[in-house]
Amino acid sequence: MDDVSCGLFRTLILERTGMHFPPRRRDAMVRSVLAAAGHSGFEEIKEYQRHLFVSKTDSKAWDELIQLLIINETYFFRDTPQMDALRDHILPEIISRHRDDRRLRIWSAGCASGEEPYSLAILLYQLLPDIAQWNIFILGTDINKSDLLWAEKACYKERSFRVTDPLIRERFFTPRDGVFELKPPIREMVHFAHLNLAEDVYPSLTTNTNAMDLILFRNVAIYFEEVMMREMALRFHRCLITDGWFMIGAAEAGSAICDPFIFWNFPGTILYRKGVAPTHRPGSRVTPPDWDSVPIPERVKFPDLPPVREEPVQPLPPYPIPAPPRSPEPADPYQEGLIMMGKGNYEGAIERFQARLAKDPKFVPAYCELARACANRGRLKEAGAWCEKAVKTDPLLAEAYYIFALIRQEEGADEKAVELLQKVLYLDSNFAVAHYSLAVIHSQAGCGDEALRHRSQAMHLGAKLPPDEILPGTDGMTAAQLLAMIGAMKMK
To answer: Of these four, 249, 291, 317, 348, which has the most CB atoms within 10 Å of its CB?
Structure first.
């Protein structure tokens, strides 16, 4: 492959997936591209490139290429010092904070074939003797659909247990036909979903990526360039509740992905945490810029200007009397709140939405945004109360019922969520994301026919919309992103 073609592939892969292949990884990318082209039946590399360009990112062609581009090197309880920190410090601290509401939310971002989120489930099973009384949500996401299929099957070979205590494998796995199958109580703790981290679809109630206690993003940052990592870091930061934890691979410490977080030292490893003010947390490190070390550029000597021609002096026109300055339009607290929401300042947004309601108690969009902001902070009871006020003020607003349904689903009240989603569709039969949410709930409950019906309807409605149209109630998700999520759904 010549340098021009290589550069075009590198740019196309970066635009579609966010994965960056610098010169040092050029050969690995070329091998993957050539293998994918051959597998797809293309003899001419330019034809394959054109095929990728016109294909959607969630298409079979891209799935096959992504599968070859990603290095699948994962196993249970990978990186012993990090697992020790989770078992001995992080998870017990999170459990202690949630003793009253008994609710835990954990996200393995870039979960590959599932060993990482299942390891977390096993740790929680060991730490919580009353685990049946807890509402635990462990999310595993990946861009590689093939890996997600293996994760759903939860069957693993010997190489996945290279550092696993044999007693753990004996207790939590069942040997079957040369593989070890994870037992149902652990499998049911983890939910898998296709997610392209390069897209701005998190945090969101719709993708269930809000109000996380712990996010693991280990050994994934190597695929992204610094600009993309900084964007992703801010999104991950917004996905966490205050004091939530963020874990990256040991080799990635100090990279741009860590910038918004406060570092904490543990034996043999470093973890990161979201705090209100870094200086209020032990272990934080805030280094002000050393302005004295910034070099001052030398003055540039400009060429002499041409001589000015003397012209006869013309009398100046009378100076116009300026009109009195107009008073600036008062800022709309609701719009200010939306801007704050986009920056992850949920507390500030809540204050601005409440200020808007103080002026107009019947302004229903503010109730909806208050519910969303509280849900992103993990305050589900408050979020539900704002939804109740929204539907009481405007009983015909489908978006309010949709947000209410997602909150109920997050609380584990799937039956109530279904009732609310049915109300959404009664008010607006074209509400595509309501069909998608119903498909997810019915699939998880094993109701395949109902799940397939709602999935098909969501796909049909989403395909009729402009790809860049923002869908109501979704924190900015577009119709194209919804279609990608629907296409990646696996019916149970």
So the answer is: 249
Residue 324 is predicted with a pLDDT of 60
Q: Summarize pLDDT for 393-445 with one digit per residue, the tens.
A: 999 999 999 999 999 999 999 999 999 999 999 999 999 999 999 999 999 88
Domains along the chain with CATH numbers = 3-69 (1.10.155), 80-280 (3.40.50.150), 333-487 (1.25.40.10)
> Are the beta carbons of 440 and 421 closer than 8 angstroms?
no
Q: Which pTM does this prediction carry?
A: 0.81
Q: Would you state the pLDDT for residue 284?
A: 43
Helix (H) or strand (E) holding 276: none
Q: If you ran DSSP here, which 8-state letter would residue 141 be given?
A: E
Question: Does residue 285 carry a pLDDT above 50?
Answer: no
* Residue whose C-alpha is closest to residue 115's, from 178, 63, 176, 72: 72
Half-sphere exposure (CA, 13 Å, Cβ side) for 14?
A: 16
8 Å CB contact between 284 and 262: yes
Structure tokens at 42: 């293309």
d(CA 341, CA 350): 9
Closest to 198 measured CA to CA, from 20, 9, 404 = 20
**Residue linked to tokens 């592939």:** 9
Say if residue 278 is exposed, middle or buried (CB neighbours under 10 Å; 0-12, 13-18, 19+): middle
- When computed from its CA atoms, the radius of gyration of the chain, rounded to whole angstroms, is 26
| Closest CA relative to residue 371, chosen from 473, 482, 478 | 473
Distances (CA, A) of 359 to 198, 199, 334, 477: 39, 36, 11, 30
Burial class (CB in 10 A: 0-12, 13-18, 19+), 97: middle
Residue 18 is predicted with a pLDDT of 84
pLDDT tens string 224-237: 888 889 999 999 99
Q: With both helix axes pointing from N to C terminus, report the angle between 333-342 and 346-359 in degrees, rounded to the nearest 10.
A: 160
Tokens 């610094």 found at = 226
Query: Hunting for tokens 């799940």 — which residue is that?
Result: 451
